[in-house]
Amino acid sequence: MSKTAVITGGTRGIGLETVRLFAENGYHVVFYGSRKETVDKALAQLDGLEVEGKWTDLTDEEAIRRDFRQIAEIEKVHAERFERFAKFLRENKLFVSDVETGWMCLNCGHVVSAKQAPAKCPVCSHDQGFFIRLELSPYER
Q1: What is the pLDDT of residues 62-114, one digit of tens each?
Q2: DSSP secondary structure string, 71-93?
Q3: What's the start-to-end Cα distance of the chain, in Å?
Q4: Which of 37, 51, 96, 121 is spaced 20 to 30 Å from 137 by Cα?
Q5: Helix (H, G, I), strand (E, B), or coil: what is residue 52?
């Protein structure tokens, strides 16, 4: 699950390098520029990184509001998922369940149905710490 950084003025200079730094450190970066040409040029320089460039008139408050609402909706889903994760951790039920539950290895995607996450993934040999309940996986809402 990646974190999101939103950067205005991310098309050149310090802004562009800030976008690169966040993306190279695991963030999904949404950056803004005021012209399509400069955003496209920055995207070409950031090829291969998890970035999204948007061009908009940064004085257009409604456009900015709309984008931040979309980000807020995504972050709300993340917050709800992490609250449930924290609850299981507090209850010592991070890898055990009272009922049959789906467990997914976050390394290889192997899925198993059991009352407890496997001690070791039978496919990739990663330990239990790589397993997550399907309901908490980044692919479920």
Answers
A1: 988 888 888 888 788 888 888 998 999 999 999 999 999 999 999 999 999 99
A2: HHHHHHHHHHHHHHHHHHHHTT-
A3: 13
A4: 51
A5: strand
